[in-house]
Amino acid sequence: MSDLPRFPPGFVFGAATASYQIEGAAHEDGRGPSIWDTYSHTPGRVANGDTGDVACDHYHRYPEDVALLRDLGVGSYRFSVAWPRIVPAGSGPVNPKGLDFYSRLVDALLAAGVEPAVTLYHWDLPQALEDRGGWRVRETAERFAEYTAVVAGHLGDRVPRWITLNEPWCSAFLGYSVGRHAPGAQEGRGALAAAHHLLVGHGLAVQALRAAGVREVGITLNLDHHLPATDSDADRAAVVRADTLHNLVWTEPILAGRYPDTEEETWGELITGQDFRRDGDLELIGRPLDFLGVNYYRPIVVADAPHREGDPALRVATDNRCTEVPMPGVRRTAMGWPVAPGTLADLLTDLKEQYGDALPPVHITENGSAEDDEVSPDGAVHDTDRVDYLRDHLTALRAAIDAGVDVRGYYVWSLLDNFEWAFGYGKRFGIVRVDYATERRVPKDSYHWYRRLIDAQGS
Question: Which residues are catalytic, by number?
């Protein structure tokens, strides 16, 4: 461990999961259906027809998972609350059994010496709200604020760190433009409306959390570091459009109180006449935060490309005349993602340069890799590639801190192998292996490595 960097005193090491990916118990104790229940049960949407009905059965096995966290030595556990488990129809009656589950989980974590960090929305929108327009309409943002107030009122006395949204880019653009995530729509203006209403929902949720008196409030964004495929002007312009789509659409309203000045170049006709934007929205969205969560996995190499759809009325919001191309000369994970750890430091230092004092303290709320894990004859999982990935990204993170970025914590993704959205159970990100036939948990070499790293910080 001597070749690994030390982190500043008080730096938080954690692990992360998400409700639909691990909980299971999809039809128990009053939980309502979510858009991911509907999506995963639609033939052809998810690999192998997999669903989150059972997943890792965390709903019943959470004491075992809390014990894994205690033995791992993490200071914090980031989990998400399932909105349809709390308010089954998205609005209206609250389900006391859902609140009780998360209350028991929080109490178990605190008893184990692990601070809970709650994400309020990790993509499992109640299906009833999607039926009324989903994130395309402002009502969903308003219902999200009501749900936030319920959860904060029940758990706020014991949970110090709160995250409003996880990766709203995926909710808006993978869900409403690309169609690879629930609800599976392929739209232009609908996706842009969803992006804006997610931001409005964030702002309203911040209000509700402040009113509840919680200690720390933030949001988690999956920000990307974009590189041009060549030095051509066309490819560099494509990077600007990609950066607008992936990053600036979130960071500019949240951190700078403005919409990106590159949005017309990025979306053209789709951006004109956006009647879903209202006076006062930017002030609401840009309320000060205590931290910014950043999820980071890989860089994206971008090349110029023509529109895939000639008719603007049929064009999806992600058709920005740019396309991702392979990054040469690097290893790729089981997701096909390039491994280039130094780009994490580049992203963070660029953020600091761009936003200066407006950038709040940062937590890396997800970082990890899917690998082609194999169980050895000794019953262990010797996931050397994942260990290398984690070590090198943590080294890059320390470089960003040395460069002046205020980074306060790091959460490995993920504690458990789990339901990996449209990939089903075919991709494994966990530092703990889950045998889905038996639900048996087996810590991998990466789990033991991470534990040694955490132990070494105090020596």
Answer: 167, 366
